[in-house]
Design a protein that fits this description.
Order of helices and strands: HHHHHHH
CATH topology: Growth Hormone, Chain: A
Strand content: under 5%
Distance between the termini: 10 Å
Keywords: Membrane, Transmembrane, Transmembrane helix
CATH class: Mainly Alpha
Organism: Candidatus Kaiserbacteria bacterium RIFOXYB1_FULL_46_14
Helix content: over 70%
Number of helices: 7
GO molecular function, one term: transmembrane transporter activity
Number of domains: 1
Oligomer: single chain
Number of strands: 0
CATH superfamily: MFS general substrate transporter like domains
Protein name: Major facilitator superfamily (MFS) profile domain-containing protein
Radius of gyration: 18 Å
Mean pLDDT: 91
Shape: globular
Length: about 210
């Protein structure tokens, strides 16, 4: 189904039916809760994993790693946004969202095997890029498909589900870390992200090239 890129905030957004828009919004919400829930899941144990499993690492190294994540994301945000703008249609956002989730998940899985500080820094470098791709593509897809007459309600429902989902992921992450080990938290969080990468593919048929 067609979506006009110049009507990103239109109530119709180029999608032909209300049911289609509803399906897209629900699928994107599930994807966002899965990706950022998995990220929160990992964040519960990340510092403990680093100081426990990586030789010579300290909390300072965790701070540097998280700074790398944010700084890389800051510099990558505008080029990535421009790249999405250059491509007609929304399939680039759909595939960008799916690939970012998948690669982000694999990054956390690989990080669970790391034993050196430089490996932590490299992982956070790439997570900064994948997170920005996720944010840019998801926001474009989500906000372009909201019915303008129900904008506030839709955003409110999303935020409710997002907050509850993140909270649940965090407490489960804490439980897994305490019972099975911090490396298992990273492994499982990565698997959650990889699972979430399937969800955007489910809506690709609603968008033209």
């Amino acid at each position: 189904m067609e979506i006009d890129r110049h009507q990103k905030h239109s109530s119709k957004a180029g999608v032909k039916s209300v049911s289609a828009r509803t399906y897209i919004i629900r699928t994107l919400t599930a994807n966002d809760v899965t990706f950022w829930g998995a990220d929160a899941f990992v964040s519960v144990a990340l510092a403990l994993f680093v100081v426990t499993y990586i030789d010579g690492a300290s909390v300072l190294n965790v701070g540097v790693a998280l700074m790398i994540h944010r700084v890389v994301g800051a510099f990558a945000a505008i080029p990535i946004g421009r790249w999405f703008d250059k491509n007609k249609g929304y399939l680039d956002e759909v595939w960008g969202l799916s690939i970012a989730c998948m690669l982000g998940g694999f990054t956390y899985i690989l990080l669970s095997f790391s034993t050196a500080i430089w490996q932590l820094y490299v992982a956070m470098f790439f997570m900064g890029i994948f997170s920005v791709i996720n944010l840019a593509s998801w926001r474009i897809l989500f906000y372009s498909n909201i019915n303008s007459e129900q904008f506030g309600q839709t955003v409110g429902m999303y935020q409710t589900l997002y907050s509850l989902g993140i909270g649940l992921f965090m407490v489960i992450g804490g439980f897994v870390g305490e019972e099975f080990g911090y490396d298992e938290v990273l492994m499982l969080g990565g698997l959650f992200m990889v699972f979430g990468s399937v969800l955007p593919i489910l809506i690709r048929g609603y968008f033209r090239k």
